[in-house]
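User: My collaborator sent over this chain with a note saying "see what the structure looks like." That's all I know about it. Can you take a look?
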Amino acid sequence: MNLEKDLLNIDFASLLTLTLVHRLRSFSKAAAELDVKQSTISYTIDRLRRALNDPLFVRQGGGIACTERCVEAVRFAEEVLAGADRFATGAAFDPSIAEGTITITTGFLVQTAILPAVTQRLRREAKGLKLRVDPPHQVDAALFDRNADLVIMPVAFEGNGVYRQHLFSDREVALMDPQNALSHSELTLEAYAAADHVSFELGNVPGFKQAWIPRLQELGITPNIFATTYDGFMVSHYVRGTDLIATMASRSARVFAGPELVLRNIPLEIDVEVNMYWTAAADRSPLNAWLRQVIIDVAQSLEPSWRADPPPKNDRSAREKNLGQ
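Assistant: Without extra context I'll predict from the sequence alone. Here is the result:
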């Protein structure tokens, strides 16, 4: 059959071209990255179209969109290319001779909690690798469109061709100025709900909210949010010298804790679950597997999440119920 003959003529370079056009959504950008003429990209995609009997890419607005068959083909191509890379590097992966750039898409919590220790491991064991940290994006967009090696964020995601592993849990606490009256009195639910807050969001992750916000809303409380930022490092600047409080994961909050800022337990038990995501193709990559294990080792070595001395005993559940009525 002509179809079989066309498929047999598809090589690794064609599969790489397909994945680049898919990721960049542009023939011209793919040509620039491969340092070839755009006509070469067009010729390669035309061959793939004939072989797969599908247009693969179609015009949409000012750009191009992928067909369902294209998405399937890209995932197959990634697996084939990962297998080829595995074959070329051999079964045993040696980080000391590895070269290249690894890209991790993540946010403030992971940058403060585990990336410093991950960086130390990389510098000791894999000096030929470079680390790029991209700001948060939706998991599937970061992996398939932006070509991240790993996505590590406190979000839950399920998708075809995406693997997930839970890394660690944390507990949300309040960060505040020591002159704030709430810093030296019991932080009751009433006081917490009435306070003015600072919140932060996960960049380009639509719909993400810190868990304490919907928890209060479930109780019929609309929190007073004075400021919202995408930059976790800015939170301390808003809180310092004011009566504002910021609720954040304890491992991030401890970066700022000290004489100038204090941590308090909040009157809601809210766990933060951090997950690591990667593609099916990356799952077969020796480098990616080694990197994942480094991150797992660091996550497992984390100290327990911070908890202050418990406040005086009280019927918190009853207060939550009453306040939510």
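A starting point for your reply to your collaborator: The domain at 169-271+306-324 is CATH 3.40.190.10 (D-Maltodextrin-Binding Protein; domain 2).
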